[in-house]
Amino acid sequence: MPSARVAVLGDEALHAAVLALGFEPCDTSPEALVVDLRDAAAVRRAAAMTGVPRVFVGGDVERPLVAALGLDASFVAGIEPARLGPALVRILPTRTRAATRMMVVTGARGGVGRTLLATNVARRIAKQRRVWLLDATGSGAAAWWLGADPRSWPSLEALADEMSVEQLALAADEPVAGVRCVGGVGLAPTRALLLAVVRVALASDDLVLVDAPIAFDALTASLAQLAQRTLFLAYDEPMSAAALPSESDDVWLIGSQCARSRVGERNVFRALPRDEPAVAAAISGRAAVRGALGRAYDDLSELLLIDTS
């Protein structure tokens, strides 16, 4: 989510305090003002900016005036972030995050369990909501786990400019009720084709879940820009820890085979336990994973369903 836009009417120290809080200082279309009452020019500028909620900062000299005007609740003595932050949060308009329509599953590197997570989450979510599962890797691994036989990506290239929901449904395979798998064994899709398929799938109002290449692939970067939620898998080891994305409300960091709730120095949103017997049992029947890992997938899927509502 983007940071709130705050107009800072005061000196460089006040700008630095607002920036340290993670807000975006701006001069146009602010969501809030921070006004230093000790700065006459700042007060004059604030007087001309009507209709924007504001926080006033000052000292003991300004406090009586603020009290006389009944603005105590909007006054902060000093510019310490610990005082200024809560005052700004109180006046900022509430932001409502749009329900998730598209999720991307990616990771710091190969072998972290992206496809295992994507197929298991798709199976669980499909009990309550239909899912398009797009295998953007070209490996056909998602189709294998589901026992599906969708058309290959190259066979869909000619439809990229004119694809409909009905055509996409014919190209998919649905061996698991509620999960329509797109993308069989062969080459990965071109960016143009994949984005066309995403557009069509979203038009159906079903959830779109993409099993994507590693996070630094250009195709994955394009997908992440369209998705409301990215699930980023990483091992708790130095190479993965060094490749973690910047912290964002839209990215859930998932620890893969993780015995603790951190990857390096970062807290994870959820940790998936190492459970080789459960994975082996699932492989033998190409079925949903059970056991401790399955329970972790259950928990994650419930949270994702809430995220889509």
Order of strands, main sheet, comes to: 8-9-7-10-6-11-12-15
Broad shape: elongated
**CATH architecture label name of the largest domain:** 3-Layer(aba) Sandwich
Largest sheet: 8 strands, mixed
The total count of strands amounts to 15
CATH fold call of the largest domain = Rossmann fold
Tally of distinct domains: 2
Strand content: 15-25%
Number of helices: 12
Q: Any overview of this molecule?
A:
The chain has 309 residues and is of the alpha/beta class. Helices cover 36% and strands 20% of the residues. It has 12 helices and 15 strands. The strands form 3 sheets. It has an 8-stranded mixed β-sheet with strand order 8-9-7-10-6-11-12-15, sandwiched between helices. A 5-stranded parallel β-sheet has the order 2-1-3-4-5. The chain has a two-stranded antiparallel ribbon with strand order 13-14. Helix 5 crosses helix 12 (291-307). The longest helix has 17 residues, at 291-307.
Key phrases:
5-stranded parallel sheet; 2 domains; Rossmann fold; elongated; 8-stranded mixed sheet; 12 helices; 309 residues; single chain; alpha/beta
